[in-house]
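Internal tracking record. Fields below are filled automatically when a chain is submitted to the structure queue. Please do not edit lines marked as system-generated. If the sequence contains nonstandard residues, flag them in the REMARKS field before resubmitting.
Queue: standard
Priority: normal
Entity type: single polypeptide chain
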Amino acid sequence: MLEKTLGLEIIEVVEQAAIASYRLMGKGQKDEADQLAVTAMRERMNEMNMRGRIVIGEGERDEAPQLYIGEEVGICTRPDAKEYCNPDELMEIDIAVDPCEGTNLVAKGQEGSMAVLAISEKGGLFAAPDFYMNKLAAPPAARGQLDIRKSPTKNLKILAKCLDRSVEELVVVVMDRSRHEDLIKEIREAGARVRLIKDGDISAALSCAFTGTNVHALMGIGAAPEGVISAAAMRSLGGHFQAQLIYDPEVVKTGLIGESKEKNIERLKSMGVKDPDAVYNAEDLARGETVLFAACGITPGTLMEGVRLFHGGARTQSLVVSSQSKTARFVDTVHMLDQPKEMQLRP
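SYSTEM-GENERATED OUTPUT FOLLOWS
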């Protein structure tokens, strides 16, 4: 039901966000590019026949006025909703969004930025606090075989066996952060190769699920909200995904909400997180009966082309993943924004 009703529309949501953000690609205006994506995404969601609740949005740090955590979107949230929505057919869904994942990438014209979202039935997505997560993603062949509690060296040996490769043939994506110095050193000493990225670990996690990307694992600490969105995709793609919340400011070193480790533990307990050290898998973070994930490239990436503008229109490439139909669809769309003078057959 969820896929048939909203499947096409969520593609349009990420497409509109990507096109809007791309208009500032390479202009050094990361906040402005993000705001354009937020506005476009919100406007399109408010045209959808649903009552949606943002469970992961623009974040607590920003105190965002749009797509903030708890905001309701969709036609059925209007004051005159009774005119548009049948209470017996009302769809209540949870939504996790990142309208512009990789704002710095857009601002600098670098590869790998996307507009992404995940949806599920009400209560189907883990409402992650604006903390960080230690993450481990790997291909489907390694699903259930790796363990985030083991050392990177041990996991690389297991992964190599699962993929019938040597450790030396493995490529591991790691965020280029000072907190990862020891992790990077261990991966290299184990014999594997490291691909450092500045931003965009959702894209890195997704790349693990597809052969031919030359990405075999994602390791390290990134934002918790993005971890939930990654889990929503990896659940349906069959890839391995595990995560643990990081609540100690000394581990992350920068940007973590909360005055201290103790205060953060108290906050987690107030949110219903009984065990702050719990290990979550994809099914824990995206536990709904139906989970849909959609992404649209803003700048070119491993999986998708970026937005390509032409006179009178734009062309986008998106990915939509469904746990319901067990599909991963790549969608190539030409947007006739004005009166295009030409329609290119191939990108």
